[in-house]
Amino acid sequence: MNSRKVLLKKCNHCGKVVEEIVNSFNDTICCGEAMEKITCNEVDTSNASHIPTYEILEGKIRVILNHEIDEEHYIMWIKLVYKNEEKTFFFKPGEEIDAIGHYEPGMKIYVYCNLHGLWIREVV
Ligand SMILES: [Fe+2]
User: Fold this and answer.
1) What distance in Å separates the CA atoms of residue 115 and residue 124, rounded to the nearest whole number?
2) How far is the CA of 62 from the centre of ligand 1 (A)?
3) Do the beta carbons of residue 29 and residue 43 sit within 8 Å?
4) Considering Cα of 20, then 33, then 90, then 99, what sign does the dihedral take?
5) pLDDT of residue 47
6) pLDDT of residue 1
7) pTM for the predicted model, two decimal places
8) What pLDDT is stored for residue 77 in this prediction?
9) What pLDDT is attached to residue 33?
10) How many CA atoms lie within 13 A of 90 on its CB side?
11) What is the 86 CA–ligand 1 centroid distance (Å)?
């Protein structure tokens, strides 16, 4: 069994972002319209770095991400997704990006930037 795929949707009117824990074929409605699926990016084509690297030491994984942390542009959260659990780290502007969890082969690291959306790194 693989780790779960994170599915986010955004309202193009009010900016609300929701996560679908259980996916269906029905639209998610906000402000009277269907919310738009947020594409999960795997290749960073912008100047900033959104695809994290990581280091594994003694059964733990530490996420390494060189990204702005200022008020206008910052990482809102990092989620470590395992086969049977998830761990989310939330950040505010100005906070150092620091995310450590246990290492599991095949786990995924999701990164959400307030300007550039959702990114993924699969861990081998
Ligand atoms: Fe960004």
Assistant:
1) 28
2) 20
3) no
4) positive
5) 64
6) 59
7) 0.90
8) 97
9) 96
10) 1
11) 23
Domains of the chain: 39-122 (2.60.40.730)
Q: Which residues contact 52 (CB under 8 A, 6 or more apart)?
A: 63, 64, 65, 78, 109, 111, 119, 121
For residue 43, the model assigns a pLDDT of 83
Give 1 Cα–ligand 1 centroid separation in angstroms: 31
Tokens of 39: 């594409």
Residues in the chain with pLDDT < 50?
none
**How far apart, in whole angstroms, are the C-alpha atoms of residue 106 and residue 5?**
12
Q: Residue 103's pLDDT is what?
A: 97
The continuous run of DSSP H or E covering 30 comes out as strand 29-30
Closest C-alpha to 75, from 44, 106, 29, 102: 44
